[in-house]
């Protein structure tokens, strides 16, 4: 397995515009480093808040070795916890989604309130302090109807993203939306290859002709890295959006951890649907 120092050396030696070396995709030591340096440190999108539409509604997710549960409390706040009982490490909820009045461990029935407090643990003795055995919290932020989590003890700053994203999403009213349909696609592949594929549209016209009815595969649109690269088409689109009350200008993290911009659909299409028409009437 490659060590951390060897991995960093390989990354620094990568030729610009070329793929990574084979080991950086497949080496188990590199994957452990990926988990520790990225997935266990950064903010990750979890669920739309509309999915947790009532008190006790929950959703689970797996981040590397860590099972996580998100649940809406009686105070209407969405919280995230490690999906593990504090007694013997049993997983609390095994389903992807569901609804509960309380979080009850199926092993010894330790019972937690929706805010993570331990409510019931039988026969633990007089010296047992239930307040010390609440569920382990995971950092959780609802940004305009999109819920993000972070496993790190001290999460990276997110205020700038939250401010920008909430401004962009406010006109959509996602917090008041309804989930009409849900589908899960499990991609059995290398995560870096999946992300690389997602970050380019060089393959779109050949592999996704239906997408290209509405989505432009013009690299001047899809791969824009700064406001000064905006084409006349983009600038016209932004002006139309802003006239309709939709924030649209290009915003990005200084190190490109994230970026926001509204990209135009083609030929006066209304939505990214197969028919190009809006999928919902309201």
Write the layout of secondary structure elements.
Elements: H1 4-12, H2 22-26, H3 28-39, E1 44-48, E2 57-63, E3 66-72, E4 78-82, E5 97-99, E6 103-104, E7 111-112, E8 118-120, E9 137-143, E10 146-150, H4 159-169, H5 191-198, H6 204-207, H7 219-222, H8 232-243, E11 251-252, E12 259-260
Antiparallel strand pairs: 1-10, 2-3, 2-5, 3-4, 4-9, 6-7, 7-8, 9-10, 11-12
**Helix percentage:** 10-25%
For the sheet with most strands, the description reads: 7 strands, antiparallel
Number of strands: 12
In angstroms, what separates the terminal alpha carbons?
54 Å
Q: What CATH architecture of the domain at 46-176 do you see?
A: 3-layer Sandwich
How is this structure best described in words?
- This protein is α+β, with helices and mostly antiparallel strands and 282 residues long.
- Among the domains are: 4-39, no CATH class; 46-176, Rieske [2Fe-2S] iron-sulphur domain (Rieske Iron-sulfur Protein, 3-layer Sandwich), CATH 2.102.10.10.
- Helix content is 23%, strand content 18%.
- The strands form 3 sheets. Strands 1-10-9-4-3-2-5 form a 7-stranded antiparallel β-sheet. The chain has a 3-stranded antiparallel β-sheet with strand order 6-7-8, with no helix packed on it.
- The protein is globular.
- It starts with a helix and ends in a 22-residue tail after the last strand.
């Amino acid at each position: 397995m490659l060590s951390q120092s060897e991995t960093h050396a390989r990354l620094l030696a990568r030729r610009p515009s070329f793929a990574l070396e084979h080991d950086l995709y497949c080496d188990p030591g590199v994957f452990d480093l990926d988990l520790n340096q990225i997935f266990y440190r950064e903010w990750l999108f979890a669920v739309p808040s509309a999915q947790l539409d009532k008190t006790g509604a929950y959703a689970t997710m797996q981040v590397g070795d860590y099972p996580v549960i998100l649940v809406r409390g009686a105070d209407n706040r969405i919280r995230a916890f490690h999906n593990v009982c504090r007694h013997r490490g049993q997983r609390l909820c095994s389903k992807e989604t569901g609804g509960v009045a309380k979080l009850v461990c199926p092993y010894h029935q330790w019972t937690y309130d929706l805010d993570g407090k331990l409510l019931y643990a039988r026969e633990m003795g007089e010296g047992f302090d239930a307040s010390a055995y609440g569920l382990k919290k995971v950092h959780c932020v609802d940004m305009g109807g999109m819920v993000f989590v972070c496993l790190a003890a001290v999460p990276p700053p997110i205020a700038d993203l939250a401010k920008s994203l909430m401004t962009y999403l406010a006109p959509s009213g996602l917090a008041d939306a309804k989930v009409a349909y849900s589908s899960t696609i499990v991609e059995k592949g290398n995560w870096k290859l999946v992300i690389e594929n997602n970050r380019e549209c060089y393959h779109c016209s050949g592999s996704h002709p239906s997408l290209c009815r509405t989505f432009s595969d013009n690299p001047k649109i899809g791969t824009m890295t700064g406001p000064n690269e905006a084409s006349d088409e983009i600038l016209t689109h932004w002006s139309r959006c802003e006239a309709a009350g939709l924030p649209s200008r290009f915003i990005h993290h200084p190190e490109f951890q994230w970026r926001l911009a509204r990209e135009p659909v083609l030929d006066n299409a209304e939505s990214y649907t197969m028919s190009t028409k809006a999928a919902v009437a309201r």
